[in-house]
Structure to design on (114 residues):
């Protein structure tokens, strides 16, 4: 199967500013940042979206949440606050079909999103 863009980044076939990686996930700076801090956290497993996760993915999803917390702390946005976003499918605004968590911060956010 063709690798997703984010698999290619995780495998270092496409360059990116990687800020964290371990055996389960990789985090790198978004190429088009929506705020002073904008990191994408992706599992190495190519799950297409949140709509496609399985029960067996529960430990991986918990790991991603904890790493999102760690990345927010490392980026200096945990205390002031930050936003985590999972765009899912066409109506959710998802453009890359590989599950990813946006970690966005460094400015005040608005609600509701556009
Ligand atoms: P989404 O719209 O939720 O699927 O988010 C995809 C994100 O990937 C967007 O914020 C893009 O700016 C980002 N993106 C696309 N290509 C790259 C790349 N080569 N390196 C880093 N981020 C990327």
């Amino acid at each position: 199967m063709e690798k997703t863009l984010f698999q290619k980044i995780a495998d270092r076939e496409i360059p990116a500013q990687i800020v964290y990686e371990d055996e389960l996930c990789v985090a790198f700076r978004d190429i088009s940042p929506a705020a002073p801090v904008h990191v994408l956290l992706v599992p190495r497993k190519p799950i297409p979206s949140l709509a496609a996760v399985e029960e067996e993915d529960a430990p991986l999803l918990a790991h991603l949440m904890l790493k999102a917390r760690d990345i927010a702390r490392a980026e200096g946005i945990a205390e002031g606050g930050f936003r985590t976003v999972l765009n899912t499918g066409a109506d959710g605004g998802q453009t890359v079909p590989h599950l990813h968590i946006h970690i966005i911060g460094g400015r005040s956010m608005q609600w509701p999103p556009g």
Remarks:
- Residues 6 and 93 are 17 Å apart (CA to CA).
